[in-house]
Design goal:
Layout lengths: L11 E3 L4 E4 L8 E4 L4 H22 L1
Antiparallel strand pairs: 1-2, 2-3
């Protein structure tokens, strides 16, 4: 299983402009990526990350 760096071991979220943010619960999360308006690609990357994060969390627990 791949290892994620500690600073990104939180869920991500994306917006309709293709931006990816750390989902810290704050309205203005830290932006960590941008797919130049490609919201579908950003949503796909968020889904991959969040799925991997859940698997890592389950195997560690």
């Amino acid at each position: 299983m791949a290892k994620l760096e500690p600073e990104i071991c939180v869920p991500w979220r994306s917006d309709c402009a293709g931006q990816i943010f750390l989902d810290t619960g704050a309205e203005d999360g830290v932006r960590i990526g941008h797919f130049q308006g490609d919201a579908a690609l950003a949503a796909y990357m968020v889904e991959i990350h969040n799925t991997l994060l859940a698997k890592i969390t389950q195997s560690a627990g």
